[in-house]
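[audit] Reproducing an earlier prediction to check determinism. Same input, same settings, fresh worker. If the tokens differ from the archived copy the diff job will pick it up downstream; this log only records the rerun itself.
[audit] input (147 residues):
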Amino acid sequence: MKIEKITENKKQFLDLLLLADEQEDMIDKYLPGGDLFALYDDDLKSVCVVVQVNSETCELKNIATYEKFQGKGYGRTLINFISDLYKNDYRTMIVGTGEIPWIMSFYESCGFERSHRINNFFTNNYNHPMFDGDIQLVDMIYLKKWL
């Protein structure tokens, strides 16, 4: 298994990034200035994007694993890698997500704790209703992890 930082042609990973953020123009807001990492285990399994929020905080803007490889630890491996990588540069890492129980549980198991909520984020910022299964995404729930 290897993790690479991708510095050129980041849009080649768009198909995977769209699994976690299904509107391309939203990805275009953070991908150019973000650090993109790709995890390979023989072939590509997962990607994530990290951006600087301020001098003390970075944000995990996107993390996605191909569906057939989910639940095998690739996402957790990426989070552990970036947490270790950024611990000397930032005090905290935040991540925002919809209020989906299994996603919240995943982040909490990776050391994140609930921080704050932005009401109506998904309904105000996306051009169509967003769903995970039968749950409509409305508010953005932020979680924070001390690095």
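[audit] rerun output stored. Observation attached for the diff report: The chain has one domain: 2-146.
[audit] end
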